[in-house]
Design brief:
The protein is an alpha/beta fold. The chain has two domains: about 1-5 and about 45-95, Rossmann fold, CATH 3.40.50.150; about 115-230, Rossmann fold. The protein has helices at about 1-15, 55-65, 75-85, 100-105, 125-135, 180-190, and strands at about 45-50, 70-75, 90-95, 110-115, 135-145, 160-170, 170-175, 195-205, 210-220. The chain has a seven-stranded mixed sheet. A two-stranded antiparallel sheet has the order 6-7. Helix 2 links the parallel strand 1 (about 45-50) and strand 2. It is globular, with a radius of gyration of 17 Å. It starts with a helix and ends in an 11-residue tail after the last strand.
Length: about 230
C-alpha cells in the first residue's frame, strides 16, 4: 500500500494528465483484446470496480453504459486523484477502502465485479472467498492479471507472492504480486464457487515485449465441491 500511495502522491505533485477512456483495455496496449463488451449490458446494474485507481474505467461505465459503479481504491492518494477528477459523475460512487474489507462488509450483492490488474496485488486466499460472497449465482467476475513479469519470467506454479517493482520516474517501488498460471487461476476460481467462461491472451501487438497479460471471465455458481471442473 505504501508504494501505491507514493505513486499517487507523485502524480498529484506532477499534475499528471491522462485522457478519458471509451473502452476498457484489460492489458497494457490500447485496442488489444476485447473491451468493455465482455461485461455485457450494464444499464442500471450494480457494478464494482475493484482497485479502481484513478477511476477512469469506472467513470466510463457509468457515463457510457449507464452502470451504477462503486469504485473501490485502498490508496488515499489514488482515491484523492479520483475524487478531484470525478467530483459529480452520475452513477459513480468513489470509495476509499481495502478491497477485502469492502467485499466482506457488502450487504447487497453486485451484478458484476471487475478489476484491471488489481487481483495481481491481492492474496487470492483472502479476496476470492469474499468475491464469491458479493455475487449471486449466475453473476459474473471479470479480471485481468499479469501473466509474465517485465523480464519475461514465467508465472508461478504455486500460490505464492513474489516481489516486483513499480516504475515511478527514476525510482522503482517494491510491490508484492501474485503472478500465477492459467490452470492455477482456474483451480482457485473453481475452489471458491466460480466456473471459468473464457481466458483471453493479451500481448503487445507491435513490438517485442516480454510482459503478457490474461483476462479471465468467470461466473458465480451455486457452491460446488473443490474438484468440480468445467468440461
Amino acid at each position: 500500500m505504501a508504494s501505491w500511495t507514493a505513486y499517487g502522491e507523485h502524480h498529484i505533485r506532477e499534475g499528471t494528465e491522462i485522457g478519458e477512456v471509451d473502452r476498457i483495455d484489460w492489458g497494457f496496449w490500447a485496442g488489444v483484446g476485447p473491451g468493455s463488451e465482455v461485461l455485457g449490458d450494464l444499464t442500471g446494474r450494480r457494478v464494482l470496480d475493484l482497485c479502481s485507481g484513478l477511476g477512469r474505467h469506472a467513470a466510463h461505465l457509468a457515463r457510457d453504459h449507464g452502470a451504477l459503479v462503486d469504485a473501490i481504491e485502498a490508496s488515499p492518494a489514488q482515491h484523492q486523484r479520483a475524487l478531484a477528477r470525478y467530483p459529480d459523475q452520475d452513477g459513480l460512487h468513489l470509495v476509499l477502502s481495502d478491497a477485502v474489507d469492502h467485499l466482506a462488509m457488502t450487504e447487497q450483492p453486485y451484478d458484476m465485479i471487475y478489476s484491471r490488474h488489481g487481483l495481481s496485488y491481492l492474496d487470492p486466499s483472502a479476496v476470492l472467498p469474499v468475491l464469491a460472497r458479493a455475487l449471486r449465482p449466475g453473476d459474473r467476475l471479470a479480471f485481468s492479471v499479469i501473466h509474465t513479469t517485465k523480464t519475461g519470467q514465467s508465472p508461478a506454479t504455486s500460490v505464492e507472492p513474489r516481489m516486483e517493482e513499480l516504475p515511478l520516474g527514476d525510482q522503482q517501488l517494491p510491490v508484492r504480486m501474485w503472478i500465477l498460471g492459467v490452470e492455477l487461476w482456474e483451480d482457485l476460481l473453481v475452489d471458491h464457487g466460480f466456473i471459468l467462461d473464457s481466458v483471453h491472451v493479451l500481448d503487445s501487438p507491435d513490438h517485442p515485449n516480454p510482459v503478457s497479460c490474461r483476462l479471465f471471465v468467470a461466473q458465480r455458481t451455486p457452491r460446488v465441491t473443490s474438484r468440480q471442473r468445467t468440461t
